[in-house]
Amino acid sequence: MEVVTHNATSLAWMGDALMTLRVREHLLNQGYQKPDILQKKSARICSAKAQARILEVLKEEAFFTEREQQILQRGRNATIHSKAKNADGKTYLEATALEALLGYLYLYGHADRLEVCLQAILKKGDSL
Fold it and tell me: Which secondary structure element, helix H or strand E, spans residue 11, and what is its range?
């Protein structure tokens, strides 16, 4: 098992950037090009509330491996000094957990699993 040397906040920062980029790319591929509409649809999937809902559904489906569950817990335990504008603390930490997992998968070279996770997130996000 690899040793994770990055802290949870750094992993979440990277995961947030990956998710935002991928969601916008997905929306552009669906034909959304007007900036205001693209922003609204992107925010609907990338918001802390949406990420927390997506994480909850994926956990119910037993989507995550044991190692990924450990990374999710690490993300949930992150020390966050800011608060989401439209989410409570618990919801924000759930979103941070999902972002940390994506950051971990990217930074530690698990590209295939990262792609599977992003596809699942996009699929769940489209149904929100």
Answer: helix 8-29
Cα–Cα distance, 59 to 64 (Å, whole number): 7
Beta-carbon count within 10 A of 5 CB: 8
Ramachandran bin of 32, using left for φ above 0, alpha for ψ from -120 to 50, beta for the remaining angles: beta
Q: What is the pTM of this model?
A: 0.91
Collapsing DSSP to helix, strand or coil, 51 comes out as helix
Name 124's Cβ contacts closer than 8 Å, sequence gap at least 6.
53, 54, 57, 58
**pLDDT digit string (tens) for 55-102?**
999 999 999 999 999 999 999 988 766 666 677 888 989 999 999 999
Catalytic residues: 16
